[in-house]
Amino acid sequence: MSDRPVRRRFEPGTTIADLKEYMEPFVLRLGYRFNDDEEFVAEVLTSEIEILDQTGDVYCPCRVRTGDPREDVKIVCPCIPFYADQFAKLQKCWCGLFVRTDVEDGSELHGVIEVPEGPAEVPVALAAEFPPGTLRTVRVGKREIALARVGDDFFALGNVCRHAFGPIGQGFLDGHMAICPWHGWRFDVRDGTTDHPGANVATYPTSVRDGYVFVTV
Amino acid sequence: MQVKLYALTTCPYCRMVKRFLDDGSIEYELTEVDTLEGEEKEDVIAEVRRISGGGASFPVIVVDDEVIVGFNKKRIKELLNL
After folding, report:
1. Is B14:B8 a contact under the CB 8 Å cutoff?
2. CB–CB of B13 and A63 under 8 A?
3. Which chain B residues are within 8 Å of A95, Cβ to Cβ?
């Protein structure tokens, strides 16, 4: 065991109000808000405070902690980024503490944990923080996607360059061409094509709503 | 009809299922996985993963051979003829 002190997000004596104040701003950026059912939220956060007292951090109360830190890190609350595509389909996180911002009434989603089949529109960025000419990598569940904005249009393509597996999203945009930062391979963000035959990357539909950019996977 | 409930003491949906089953006077075998330890806990978690298709979300309700993940009231009522 390392002797480095563990940083704690929350001190003993943290209340439900403290948790809400801490989590709200950053879950909004992830495309989620607290469930409308306030009693339910209070119940979940009370459980999370119990878990905080036992373990020193806040974990999802609907999942079991295995004791292996590499596994348990995936259920530190909010665990949204680790399950981005599944939650996008469920429209909430596992326990329903958080619901997607585009959900009308969160209390209708109570109890459902089975992920529906089919594609998901996953919120990946705030349009306001993504000015024209920006190219960035976003993670959707296990996928890495290069997100580009040309004018007012957003494009999403696979992040891995077909040349030497460089990170396209860390390159730069020249009009509609995303240029891989490692060796300069150029990918047209509209269709994922490149000059080299057979080396295209996948593209994903995008949409913008209520200030969020969505990628459909 | 054999009803088994795998739950966590911290999980609000687990509490809801327990209330639901108790209100319906349904007998069930309760396993609160977070109260177990060591090898027994590992074995039960592996079992839950196996029957619920890989994940480890709770509650998991087993009615004979049918597995329901989450508090899916409609499905539970169907299987228990409520």
Report:
1. yes
2. no
3. 11-13
